[in-house]
Structures are given as structure tokens and as C-alpha cells.
Design goal:
Length: 310
């Protein structure tokens, strides 16, 4: 029997690199094109790539991503770029007869005031969080497009994972582009090496967030690829519990070895007060993440130090 061919979009991003690093990927013939090899913003080029390479399955993890600052300053890019690449890869896959596609969405698709934990049926049931609305709308678009294709053609299995917030190896640590945990690591490490006595936290630090180590989402993807029929059409992937912003800072400081104190800027935006996904479908599917917060931050900090040394 021929080895299945898997296309991973976004192979140079954090999630894509973690998927490629997973030992389970060795069982497949993997396509991991760079942006120069596969320009997802160009529909014709995307379709031609699929026609030439004929993948059996696609993992769509490509996207323009960033933290609150990036989303607030560039909402047009986060909306249009992500809609374009989502539409192009999904529609090209349909036209080329690729019958299995796993779309990686985002928990920012959920309404800002929805009750936690967030269940999959809550999408489009309320106002989105304004600080990343453009990105959220683009992810909703791709998710609904997958659902519509399956509705019209049930022999196509286009499914969506909704991961909680992610961090880990290959993350972005630039303060202008980074998400919460890599930003914390950079800030606290800088405070340590420069002798700063304080580190600023935006807001009171009481907002709660669910961050999963990227190696764990990769593990869920590999499990899905091995038994795609068993995957729910739409499923959250997360920890099932969360931590306050203050707790993330405290664990990072402990891992890094910084012993200063935190100060809070109550005038800065903090986004949603809580964003915790329901893991009921995930549990029924039979999978749970394995990496603790301390272990995940430790692995991410070691990667950060290695990037500074290179």
C-alpha cells in the first residue's frame, strides 16, 4: 500500500514546525513547501501546486498571526490575508479532489461575552473581541467554508480543530509580533540580564488564559491524520483549564530565575477576561495534552536562549 502524502501549509511557522518535528510524521510522505514554493495568496498557483503534487491530506496551519499589538495596528492585513489563504487552499483542494483536509482555526472565533468553557456551538452567537476581530472573522470564514463543502459533498472530509492559545518552540519573541507567553519570556529574561527590579504587566493580571504547548497540538494533529474518520467535524483542542496572567508571569520568572517584582499598568488593554475552551469532544475522542505549564515554559525558554546564541 502506498504511503499517504501529507501537505502541511505554514510549515515555516510555529505550529507547522512543531508538526514536522513530531516523530509520528515519519510514517508519511510529507510536503512542507516554503512561501516561495507555495504562495497561498495566489489561487492559481495554489491549485497548480496541488495538481502537481497530489496530496492525500492537507493540514492547513498557515496564517498571519500576532499578539494584541499587531492585531490592533494591522486589522486589514489580519482579515484579508487570512481570508485569502484560507479560501485559496480550501477551494483549490476541493477543485483538485483532495478529500481530507484538517483546518486549524482559533479560539478567538468565540464571542467575547460567551460563558466559559466555550463549546463549539457558540461560534457566531455573539460579538467578537475587538482587539483581534479581523483575525477571528477570517478563521470563522475558513471554518464555515469547510462545513459548507461537506454539506454539499459529504464524501469530502474537511474538518476543523479549534486550538486554544498556543506557545512553544519556534515561537516569535519580538515584542511587536509575539503572543503572551513568548512576550513574557522575553521581558523577564531581559529584566534578568539587565538587572531590572520590576517588570510591567498590562492590566491587573487577573484575566485568565488557556495556553497549550505547541508540541501538544502537533500530537493531536498526528493522531487525527492516523484515523481521520474518527475526528469530529469541529473540535476544540485545549487543556480544559486555565491560568491568570499573573500566574504565567510567576512561572516564567521562576523558570528564568528572575527575582524582581511585577507592576501593573491598569490603562493598557487586556482583551477578554477569560477564554477557556470546552474539551468535552476532545475527551470523547480520546486525547489529552501531556505538557505541564512549567515544562512547556522551560522548553520554550531553552529554545529562546538557543535563538539568542545563534
Amino acid at each position: 500500500m502506498a504511503t499517504a502524502r501529507i501537505l502541511v501549509t505554514g510549515a515555516r511557522g510555529m505550529v507547522g514546525k512543531n508538526i514536522l518535528e513530531h516523530p509520528g510524521m515519519a510514517q508519511w510522505d510529507v510536503l512542507a513547501p516554503s512561501r516561495d514554493e507555495l504562495d497561498l495568496s495566489d489561487f492559481t498557483a495554489t491549485r497548480q501546486y496541488l495538481e502537481a503534487n497530489r496530496p492525500d491530506m492537507i493540514v492547513h496551519s498557515a496564517g498571519l498571526v500576532g499578539g494584541i499589538h499587531a492585531n490592533m495596528s494591522r486589522p486589514v492585513d489580519f482579515l484579508v490575508n487570512n481570508i485569502d489563504i484560507g479560501r485559496n487552499i480550501i477551494m483549490a483542494a476541493r477543485e483538485c479532489g483532495v478529500r481530507r483536509l484538517l483546518n486549524l482555526a482559533s479560539s478567538c472565533m468565540y464571542p467575547r461575552n460567551a460563558a466559559n468553557p466555550l463549546t463549539e456551538d457558540l461560534i457566531l452567537k455573539g460579538e467578537l473581541e475587538p482587539t483581534n476581530e479581523g483575525y477571528a472573522l477570517a478563521k470563522i470564514f475558513s471554518t464555515r467554508l469547510c462545513e459548507y463543502i461537506v454539506r454539499e459533498q459529504p464524501d469530502f472530509l474537511y474538518k476543523t480543530f479549534i486550538p486554544c492559545n498556543l506557545y512553544g518552540r519556534h515561537d516569535k519573541f519580538d515584542p511587536e509580533k509575539s503572543h503572551l507567553i513568548p512576550a513574557i519570556i522575553h521581558k523577564v529574561h531581559t529584566a534578568k540580564v539587565t538587572g531590572q527590579e520590576t517588570v510591567e504587566i498590562w492590566g491587573a493580571g487577573t484575566a485568565r488564559r488557556e495556553f497549550m504547548y505547541a508540541g501538544d497540538i502537533a500530537d493531536a494533529v498526528i493522531r487525527a491524520l492516523g484515523n481521520f474518520d474518527s475526528v469530529p467535524a469541529l473540535m476544540n483542542v485545549g487543556l480544559g483549564h486555565d491560568f491568570t496572567i499573573n500566574e504565567y508571569y510567576a512561572v516564567a520568572a521562576d523558570v528564568i530565575g528572575w527575582q524582581g517584582r511585577f507592576v501593573h499598568d491598569l490603562d493598557k488593554p487586556v482583551g477578554m477576561q477569560q477564554k477557556l475552551v470546552s474539551t468535552t469532544r476532545q475527551t470523547a475522542w480520546g486525547w489529552q495534552p501531556a505538557t505541564s505549564l512549567r515544562d512547556g515554559i522551560s522548553k520554550t525558554y531553552q529554545f529562546y536562549l538557543a535563538t539568542l546564541a545563534s
